[in-house]
Write a structure and sequence with these properties.
This protein is mainly alpha-helical and 101 residues long. 78% of the residues lie in helices and 0% in strands. The chain has one domain (15-100): Metal-sensitive repressor, helix protomer (Methane Monooxygenase Hydroxylase, Chain G, domain 1), CATH 1.20.58.
């Protein structure tokens, strides 16, 4: 995980606890899915839970992307220079990864 500048406050800093709680909830859901597999639960029920986890992760990812665009990219663009191009390229690559997933 490398970034052009990972020092200082990030766009998600104000929502850090919220994101951490959501990710812990997702972690619990994934553990629940593993338990369902161990207990030989019905395939469709397992798939339904996997879909829910995927949706929850997508929601977190989109929230982080929104924070990144609103904070990191906006700040870099307002400052201008090469850093603006770097942040825009990072955002574009992140969006491409999200679309593919």
């Amino acid at each position: 995980m490398d970034a052009a500048d990972n020092s200082g406050a990030h766009g998600y800093s104000a929502q850090k606890e919220n994101y951490a709680k959501r990710l812990r909830r997702i972690e619990g859901q994934v553990r629940g899915i593993a338990k369902m597999i161990d207990e030989d639960k019905y395939c469709i029920d397992v798939l339904t839970q996997i879909s829910a986890v995927n949706s929850a992760l997508q929601s977190v990812a989109l929230g982080l992307l929104d924070e990144h665009l609103g904070h990191c990219v906006t700040q870099a663009v307002s400052e201008g220079g090469d850093q603006a191009d770097v942040k825009l390229a990072e955002a574009s690559a992140a969006i491409a990864r999200l679309v593919r997933s």
